[in-house]
Amino acid sequence: MKDKKMLFIFSFITIVLILSLTLDIKDIEKLSGLFSSEKEMSEVESQSKKEEKQSAQGDENIHIKKNGNSIYLKANLDTINPITSLSWLDKNTLRFNYTFEDENIENIIYDYSTKEEKIEAKFNIKGIIWEWAKANKDGIIYSNDGFNGLFYMDNKEKETKISKNQEWYSISPDGKKVIVNGVPNDKGDRNERFIYDLEKNKYELANYIPDIDYVYSYIAATWSPDSTHIVSQEPGNNSRINIIDANKGIEKKINIDNNILTLPTWSEDGKKLTFLIQSNEYKDYVINDLEIQYFLSDKIGIYDVKTKKIKIIDLKDKLTTSRVHWSRDNEKIIVETTKAENAQKLLEDDWTQIKAKIEYINIKTKKRKEVLDSGIDMTDDYPVHQITPIKLFSNNILLFMDSNKDIRSINITKIDKKDIITKEIGYLYSYSEYKDSIYMISDEGIYISDDNLKIKELINFQEEYGENTLNVDAKISPDYKKIVLYVQYDIDSDDKTFIEIKKIK
């Protein structure tokens, strides 16, 4: 062994001497540089692999990759839509459902922290999910098919069955309570209406809420945005509206001289409720709107939750032809009206079109202002409104649709000005307001409008992701600093579904 070692050393020295005799100084420098470059390349490759390992976190279902200012979450399945129900829990946390199928269908609900760049499987649910929603602080509420059982699961994956079956249910905006029209899990087979408190793990019967089909459940019970109250009506009993305290039961039964009361609508803060009042003298002024009847009304009632008092705005010679839309500051409303004499023409067979106006009403002062010309077309035996208000924002900017213009166009105007800005942005999916800007998401991209009604394109989906894009589901974070985009392609496309999280510029 010692002789072999000495032979190796002698051979190495001989090779070095031969090289020194045959190579000049420049060749030696090049050779030295070659070894140096290989060492540097080795270090770079090592660092690259380390960074790739750090940026490609996730688990067996979700692959995470960071590229510049964007983070990509890619599903390892090749199906078109393995990810559903994408939403922001808070400004730094994203939640979504990942569905996969081997022998059985299974759902994993993930939370992804944009701050820590970490993904965590929070809930595992067997079978198809009809619907799920955030409930309480850390849990979820879900149903496999919408009708056969409603379940609550906490962050430890402990499952509580709320009902054996249900016709419909409605979760409060804060996720702490749920109204159920069904059979409680601890009862026999009798159908009840009850309010289940997820924090206390118990329920109170609420059979003052009517037992009706799920199609009309919004009439039976609608939560206030602050989750403290519920408004309820009985089908066939249009002369009464019940205001329900979510903790105590019926708070007030509203009846105004047995007049028809319809379309109760909560203000954004949940402190007030508008409803339409049709006096007996106009009882024949009814429009059939597909599956429902619309009662043209001569008054608007406003219920104050705090004082429990009702204010009435008399429209005098006019009648409402649409539901009420609240402003962001909860002090103004927008509604479509027409003169009573015009409404009379709709009752005659030879009239199919009438003129109307969009009115802006200050509920405190009762002052009214006509802001847009509109109209109603009954050619097809149901009303087509020229102007459809979408949202009245806090800076008195009104977002609306105009049937006389391209259906892919959006229209914006300021109440105290006459300028109307029209821009084709595609089919509008969602809209929101942050500071002095309005954000709009359509099937074509994301747009922003400022206080001067200038509309700017933030992202064009086809330009960003290609013409073979099937759909892009976009959601803006609560602090408006980030946006998540779920990009889907056709199953035959070489491009695969992914989620991108990027900063808003």
Describe the structure.
It is built from five helices and 40 strands. The protein is globular, with a radius of gyration of 32 Å. A hairpin with a 5-residue loop joins strand 9 and strand 10. With 505 residues, the protein is mainly beta. The strands form nine sheets. It has a seven-stranded antiparallel beta sheet, with no helix packed on it. Strands 24, 25, 26, 27, 28 and 29 form a six-stranded antiparallel beta sheet that branches. It has a five-stranded antiparallel beta sheet with strand order 1-2-40-39-38. Residues 1-56 have low confidence and may be disordered.
Provide the residue-averaged pLDDT.
85
Radius of gyration: 32 Å
* Uncertain regions spanning at least 5 consecutive residues: 1-56
Which structural class should the secondary elements be placed in?
mainly beta
Q: Strand portion, in percent?
A: over 45%
Largest beta-sheet details: 7 strands, antiparallel
Q: Quick one: overall form?
A: globular
Distance between the termini: 70 Å
Placed side by side, the strands forming the largest sheet appear as: 7-8-9-10-11-12-13
Helical content class: 10-25%
Number of helices: 5
Count of DSSP E strands?
40
